[in-house]
Specification:
Protein name: Endospore coat-associated protein YheD
Number of strands: 17
CATH superfamily of the largest domain: ATP-grasp fold, B domain
Radius of gyration: 22 Å
Structural class: alpha+beta
Order of helices and strands: EHEEEEEHHHEHEEEEHEEEEHHEEHH
Pfam families: ATPgrasp_YheCD
Strand order of the largest sheet: 7-12-8-9-10-11
CATH topology of the largest domain: D-amino Acid Aminotransferase, Chain A, domain 1
CATH architecture of the largest domain: 2-Layer Sandwich
Low-confidence stretches: 366-372
CATH class of the largest domain: Alpha Beta
Strand content: 25-35%
Length: 372
């Protein structure tokens, strides 16, 4: 029996795909499960919209080959937007082919996400105070309530354009550091809050940023850290926490993202270094895992079917767990980085196990016919 699963991706500059390594691993894993993985983008639709020119990986030749196929019966959306044009292209594709069976759907931006998560009491108590950025007066007021404030783009990913502001004794002046929209680390500087808006005007910050209460994330060496949790559907259609690992940012960075130069460490190792007590570490782990499962179930009740979610968590010096961010197109490299090959392989395999479960729900007694 041969099943087909489509991977919906997006070309970057020069018709390159962003996650080719992941797609190759999915393809190799899928073949062992009796699944052919077919990778295509909205630009690969041919034959008046009836078929796609998809990429299929040949493990014997270690190469990708193009083949013209009908739309696969189930589609794993891995599109990373990288700009308005790509987002609009994806939305047009999903609208045009709304009858295709997608395993997930786009979620909301950071501000809308905060509002949705705030509706659930079991999640709301773990959310940092968050408001929309509407100008320097609101920023001044927010800085008076919180000694550390993060400015984040509502639609940003990978730590791009994130600023951390630290209130000084002079409430009109703050220490600013962060990353520009290209992920470059910005040097620490003192800046008057009235000058912030003008300084960031080229970033088009107005109406596109949120302000978020800063959670103490600095380790004794001054580097910041957080935790990335991966929650996925399993081969029975049930939510499971696949794993959680710590991320430590490079020196002078306000973010811990691996793409921005961060390093990875096992969650339990990092927690034990900070809190010592095994009981305390286990209590934090249980709280984090419950929060992760509550989050995905609440999101699915609001948005519909979801396959996996990456959740960025913080643990403050008292051991309180905070939910910083939700990512519907999560990476799983953090588990590879800490040498946890078992969790890494599980993180790759689970989307295919869930796809296989869905396909068998659709037609338990019929085999899919291969394209000629």
């Amino acid at each position: 029996m041969s099943y087909k699963v489509g991977i919906l991706a997006m070309y970057l500059t020069g018709r390159k795909l962003e996650e080719v390594s992941y797609f190759r691993k999915l393809s190799v894993t899928g073949r062992k499960m009796g699944i052919e993985v077919l990778v295509f983008t909205p630009d690969d639709v041919v034959d008046s919209g009836e078929r796609v020119l998809a990429l299929s990986y040949n493990p014997e030749q270690k190469s990708w080959v193009r083949k013209k196929v009908s739309f696969p019966p189930i589609i794993y959306d891995r599109c990373r937007y990288h700009g308005t044009n790509n987002y609009q292209k994806l939305m047009r594709f999903r609208t045009t082919y709304s009858k295709l069976h997608f395993m997930s759907r786009p979620l909301a931006n950071k501000w809308k996400m905060h509002q949705i998560l705030s509706e659930e009491d079991r999640i709301a108590s773990h959310l940092p105070s968050t408001v929309r950025y509407q100008g320097t007066e609101e920023l001044k007021s927010f800085l008076k309530r919180h000694s550390v404030v993060f400015l984040k783009p509502s639609n940003g990913t990978g730590g791009r354009g994130i600023l951390r502001l630290l209130r000084t004794k002079d409430s009109e002046v703050c220490l600013m550091q962060g990353r520009d929209p290209n992920r470059r680390i910005l040097p620490i500087q003192h800046i008057h809050v009235d000058r912030l808006h003008d300084k960031l005007q080229s970033w088009k910050i107005a109406d596109r940023y949120i302000m978020q209460q800063g959670i103490p994330l600095q380790l004794p060496d001054g580097r910041v850290h957080d935790y990335r949790m991966l929650v996925q559907k399993d081969g029975a259609g049930k939510w499971q926490v696949t794993g959680c690992a710590g991320r430590i940012g490079p020196s002078k960075s306000v973010t811990s993202n691996l793409h921005g130069g961060g390093t990875a460490i096992a969650m339990e190792v990092l927690l034990r270094k900070r809190f010592g007590s095994s009981d305390k570490v286990e209590e934090i782990r249980r709280t984090a895992y419950a929060l992760g499962l509550n989050t995905v179930k609440h999101l699915e009740s609001k948005f519909g079917k979801i396959i996996e979610v990456g959740i960025d968590l913080a643990v403050d010096p008292k051991g309180n767990v905070w939910l910083l961010e939700v990512n519907p197109k999560p990476s799983r490299e953090v588990f590879h980085r800490i040498g946890d090959s078992q969790t890494y392989q599980k993180a790759i395999r689970r989307p295919l196990e869930y796809a296989l479960w869905l396909l068998k729900q659709k037609s338990p007694n019929s085999e899919q016919k291969a394209d000629p």
